[in-house]
Design brief:
Layout (H helix, E strand, L loop, with lengths): L6 E8 L3 H10 L4 E2 L6 E4 L2 E10 L2 H11 L5 E8 L4 E8 L2 E8 H8 L2
Antiparallel strand pairs: 1-4, 1-5, 2-4, 3-4, 5-6, 6-7
Helix pairs in contact: 1-2
C-alpha cells in the first residue's frame, strides 16, 4: 500500500562537485520516500535534489548547504508542504541562504494557474 505524498522538495546547486554531493547525500539520508530513487544526484557540475514522500530532513540539509556554500555557487531549495499547503523557498547565493514562505494558493495565483 503506498503512502500519501506530504512533502515535495526540489532544488539545485551550481557549480557543484563530488564533495558537495557527499555532504548533501549524508544530510538527506533520513528521508522517507517511495521507491529507491536517490534524492540527491550530481550531473556534471549541477547538483539536483528531487524528493516526494513523507519526510525530508530540511534543517539538516540546510545546515549542510550552509557548511559547503562557496562564493560563486548559486541555487535553491523549494519545499512544498502539501499538508500545510505552503511553499518555502531557500535561495543560495554569495555564500548566504535566504528564505521566504507563502501559502500555495498565493503562489498559484501569482503564477497564473
Amino acid at each position: 500500500m503506498s503512502q500519501p505524498v506530504l512533502l515535495k522538495v526540489y532544488g539545485n546547486l551550481y557549480p557543484a562537485d563530488a564533495a558537495d554531493l557527499e555532504a548533501l547525500d549524508r544530510a538527506s539520508a533520513g528521508c522517507v520516500q517511495e521507491g529507491a530513487d536517490e534524492a540527491v544526484t550530481l550531473e556534471r557540475d549541477l547538483l539536483r535534489i528531487s524528493f516526494e514522500g513523507l519526510f525530508f530532513p530540511v534543517d539538516d540539509v540546510l545546515e549542510a548547504f550552509a557548511a559547503i556554500l562557496r562564493p560563486g555557487q548559486k541555487g535553491k531549495l523549494d519545499v512544498l508542504d502539501l499538508e500545510g499547503w505552503r511553499l518555502t523557498r531557500h535561495q543560495f547565493a554569495d555564500g548566504r541562504i535566504t528564505s521566504r514562505s507563502a501559502p500555495l494558493n498565493n503562489v498559484l495565483d501569482f503564477s497564473g494557474h
